[in-house]
Design a protein that fits this description.
It is a single chain. The protein is mostly beta strands. 0% of the residues lie in helices and 49% in strands. It has a 5-stranded mixed beta sheet, with no helix packed on it. It has a 4-stranded antiparallel beta sheet with strand order 7-4-9-10, with no helix packed on it. It is elongated, with a radius of gyration of 28 Å.
């Protein structure tokens, strides 16, 4: 559920198989989003058809797009109560009307009137949808406790000095020991350094004096995680 800010951050750290973007000023972006409603338990899809039930289809899908519940055959002026008994997770519901006039339409009395609701297992109304919805009702929701995907941050610090430099850098990684792999990629995505190391808190020299000026991406891979660092050669 996050921290309540409802902000999604994205950053490009490598392109073209590990290379750097030639223009780094637009490598970060943030956007806000609306969280779907999460119901603490399974609930009931409670709805009534109108005089044209052949126009209606109901589908519930999981986050991978698999249909977990559906109803495509209906009877006119009938109340349906379908209890969702689904494991905790993220889902979407789609209720369509091929006549494009929903379950109720003020300009077409012959169609009759229906409704569409979510109710709890104890018959408490959770949500009422507008019956004059046109082509479809669509909503995303969660059942139970929704756990986000957490990122694994590197458990060590990784620095370079001086930075920028003329191409001679000294890297230092604190908090890790044992085997690691060091890779340096130039601005075109070319791998210019690839070497295996044994980390013992020592400084790591990197010589880019024979390479062109620009921004280089350094990647240090260890069992504790992966750390990225940019080097500026001038």
């Amino acid at each position: 559920a996050g921290d309540g800010e409802n902000r999604f951050d994205v950053e490009i750290v490598g392109v073209n198989d590990g290379g750097l973007d030639g223009y780094g000023d637009n490598d970060r972006y943030s956007t806000h989003f609306a969280m779907p409603v999460t119901y603490p338990e399974n609930f009931v899809i409670w709805y009534k058809t109108n005089n044209r039930p052949n126009e209606n289809d109901l589908f519930v899908r999981d986050f991978q797009g698999n249909v977990v519940m559906s109803r495509t055959t209906h009877t006119a002026n009938t109340v349906y109560r379908d209890t969702l008994e689904l494991p905790p997770g993220c889902y979407e519901l789609e209720f369509t009307d091929s006549g494009n006039d929903g379950l109720s339409y003020w300009a077409d009395d012959d169609a009759g009137n229906g409704y569409f609701r979510f109710r709890s297992l104890t018959n408490v109304n959770l949500r009422t949808f507008e019956p004059e919805f046109g082509h479809r009702i669509y909503t995303a929701f969660g059942i139970g406790s929704i756990t986000g995907v957490s990122t694994q941050d590197a458990e060590f610090s990784f620095t370079a000095r001086p930075n920028p430099s003329d191409g001679r850098f000294t890297l230092a990684a604190e908090g890790i020991f044992g085997p690691a792999r060091l890779e340096v990629v130039d601005p075109t995505g070319r791998l210019v350094i690839s070497t295996n190391l044994i980390m013992d808190q020592r400084n790591i020299p990197v010589d880019l004096t024979s390479e062109a000026d620009g921004i280089y991406l350094v990647r240090l891979v260890h069992e504790a995680g992966t750390s990225l660092l940019r080097l500026a050669k001038r």
